[in-house]
Amino acid sequence: MNLYRIVYASTLSESFNSQDIEHILASSRRNNKKQDVSGMLLFSHRYFLQCLEGSRDNINQTYQRILSDERHCRVTIVSYENVTQREFCAWSMGYVPESHLTRELLFKFSASATFDPYTLSNVSALALLKSLHGTVI
Ligand code: FAD
User: Fold this and answer.
1) Which of 45, 74, 93, 127 would be a feasible disulfide site paired with 11, CB 3.0-4.6 Å?
2) How do residues 12-51 score in pLDDT, each as one tens digit?
3) Residues with CB under 6 A from ligand 1
4) How many Cα atoms occupy the beta-carbon half-sphere of 114 within 13 Å?
5) What is the pTM of this model?
6) Which residue of 10, 65, 68 sits with most ligand 1 atoms within 8 Å of its CB, as the best mutation to test the pocket?
7) How far away, in angstroms, is 59 Cα from ligand 1 center?
8) pLDDT recorded at residue 18
């Protein structure tokens, strides 16, 4: 079965509250595990950057649910590709909170040290997520 990876960026909606992140992680981990989907979610400065890996059908179904979620908006695909291996196979949904994202790391992968996932190239977005492997909770 072909393996696919999608990376997308989104923005918190007005209705988002502090407990929502725990609910999102719980649903993600439960649903993704059932569907053999792995990935990572980075949250900082009101933005999300998320990667999902798995079969094309499972990735597409998951992304469609995510698209209609009112807890975030401006959901924008950064990359969608057929890949030979998973980069985040250790996590049904690894999470990297704001506090783990340093200015040095952002400066390394972006044009400025401020996190704005909409300005990242597909290559930089994936490189940034991979560089955070050691800080996933
Ligand atoms: P449940 O887990 O049973 O829903 C739990 C609770 O979450 C509900 O009671 C409700 O309070 C709340 N909720 C559920 N859906 C919505 C909604 N659309 N709008 C507002 N509140 C809602 N899901 C995944 O399966 N995998 C992922 O990797 C994933 N990543 C996400 C990343 C982000 C940034 C966001 C915002 C959401 C993500 N989700 C993910 C959640 C997804 O959008 C759906 O909410 C979820 O898949 C629904 O799962 P469920 O049917 O099991 O609902």
Assistant:
1) 74
2) 999 888 899 999 999 999 999 999 999 999 999 899 999 9
3) 10, 23-24, 27-28, 31-32, 39, 41, 48, 50, 52, 62, 65-66, 68-72, 93
4) 5
5) 0.94
6) 65
7) 14
8) 82
